Amino acid sequence: MEWVSDIQGQGVLAMRVLLVEDDAILGDGLRQALGSAGFVVDWLVNGRHADAILREEKYDLLLLDWNLPGMSGLDVLKNLRARETYVPVLLLTARDLIADRVEGLDCGADDYLIKPFEFKELLARMRALGRRFRGRGNQLLQLGSLVLDPLERKCVLDGAEVRLSQMEFRMLYMLMESPGRVVPKHRLEETVYGQEIVAESNTLEVYVHHLRRKLGRRRIRTVRGVGYLIERE
After folding, report:
1. What gap in Å lies between CA 123 and CA 34, rounded to an integer?
2. Predicted confidence (pLDDT) per residue in 59-97, tens digit
3. pTM here?
4. How many other C-beta atoms can be found within 10 angstroms of the C-beta atom of residue 45?
5. 116-120, 126-130, 177-181: which range is least confident on average?
6. How far, in whole angstroms, is CA 182 from its chain's centroid?
7. How many CA atoms lie within 13 A of 170 on its CB side?
């Protein structure tokens, strides 16, 4: 598999992705590469854990291995569709028989990529799924005059575009997904920096300060000792 080390300028869509892959080398490589491309990535190695988190969390895209411990990827997919959750799903698997592809697609997968694959092809398929599902109109996050487009990585306030850094965009995305609800500080740190990166204690406060300066001081509220929330309008 070819890993792309510098893909910031290639139009990769900013999306929140759940990666479910039990191969430690492949999973960690994908997590790092996708994170470098601007995606917000949560990585799990167990199918049962994935099934549980998909009942609670919202994602823009699911990258799902077929053979997983705890619960197969196909069963995770079946449960997801039985709940009428229509997050786009890209199956990643070494199964290359036509019958396997048909079974995966019939169970609700939106696309199918056979291992080993080129990272560039994975990105292309992710972009295509993003464009396809953007047409459903469920990707934009809006709170009054504040609009966030995760696919175009654009923030608009009162009709004017607001320039955000990658970290600012990720933090605002997390907050706008749960308006009026507190997002714990540790959850923001994991999403913004990655699960294995320890940020300095005041780094989140610095980004919150920047967002308040750009969006208005009263829009984001600090809940001391817990985290942050963005106010509903």
Report:
1. 9
2. 889 999 999 999 999 999 999 988 877 788 999 988 888
3. 0.57
4. 17
5. 126-130
6. 19
7. 23
- Residues 169 and 153: their CA atoms lie apart, in Å, by 8
> Dihedrals φ, ψ of 93, to 5°?
-160, 155
Q: Which of 134, 111, 118, 109 is nearest to 13 (CA)?
A: 134
Tell me if 229 sits within 8 A of 175, measured CB to CB: yes
Place of tokens 């005041």: 202
Angle between helices 166-177 and 185-193 (to 10 degrees): 140
Residue environment code for 200-218, b if the CB has 16+ CB neighbours within 10 A, otherwise e: eeeebeebbeebeeebeee
Give the span between the Cα atoms of 187 and 194, in whole angstroms: 10
Q: Select from 16, 6, 60 the least CA-distant residue to 36.
A: 6
Residue 132 in tokens: 């396809």
Q: How far apart are CA 156 and CA 175, in angstroms?
A: 15
Q: How do the residues of the chain divide into helix, strand and coil, expressed in percent and rounded to 5?
A: 40, 20, 40
Q: What would the pLDDT profile of 122-175 be if each residue is shown by its tens digit? A: 988 888 887 766 554 446 788 999 998 876 678 999 999 999 887 788 789 889
Please say if the pLDDT value at position 8 is more than 80.
no
For 103-160, the DSSP string reads HHHHTT-SEEEESS--HHHHHHHHHHHHHHHHTTT-S-EEETTEEEETTTTEEEETTE
